[in-house]
Amino acid sequence: MMQKDNPFNEEVAAYENWFETNDKLFYSELEAIRHFIPTNGEGIEIGVGTGIFASKLGIKYGVEPADIMADAALKKGIHVTKATAENLPIDNETYHFALMVTVDCFLDDVPKAFSEVQRILVNDGLFIIAFLDKDTPLGNLYEQNKHLHKSYKDANFHSAKEISKYLKEAGFEILDKRQTIYSLDNDYQDIKSGVGEGVFAVIKAKKIKVL
């Protein structure tokens, strides 16, 4: 995503306030992701935002194009590189895992971004991607009403099937899928295997070894 198009440049307070107001929804999302985060190795979050997920998951590094978001992440102790997902200024095979949380819908070029993630991961490195699955009841609602939401009016939501296709084309093997958030009530919500019910979907994929 190009920085000039980033809808979050002026919305840090509103962004952080959502997680405080919807703390149980946030906890459900966080735990769905945490299940896939490795206990060993160095990780990075692509589109780290204010660092709210990275700081809770023990991820020390992040990439973020929006200046004000990156500055907020820096204050949380995250080492932030200001760049876009499609052009990562990171050496090949640097990280053991990468996380991306609801960033896919803002990317200019999803295949290029996924290829960049594949490039910076070591062989057998993990890519954990969380996204709003448009092929779910709530996902359909998001799609129909995105024009009413400043942050999402230009978003291009994807289905789990589409994300899986992009991952495979970028050189990843899909290992597991999990889902949560079945209603927008601020309640703790079940974390289930698979996709198709919960709007917040998480896929764990492994970089296919390059010989």
From TrEMBL:
A GO MF label: methyltransferase activity
GO biological process terms on file: methylation
Protein name, as recorded: Methyltransferase domain-containing protein
Gene3D superfamilies with a match to the protein in the record: Vaccinia Virus protein VP39
Record's keyword annotation contains Transferase: yes
Alphabetical list of InterPro entries matching this protein: SAM-dependent_MTases_sf
Any Pfam family hit: Methyltransf_23
Keywords: Methyltransferase, Transferase
CDD domains tied to this protein: AdoMet_MTases (cd02440)
Lineage: superkingdom: Bacteria
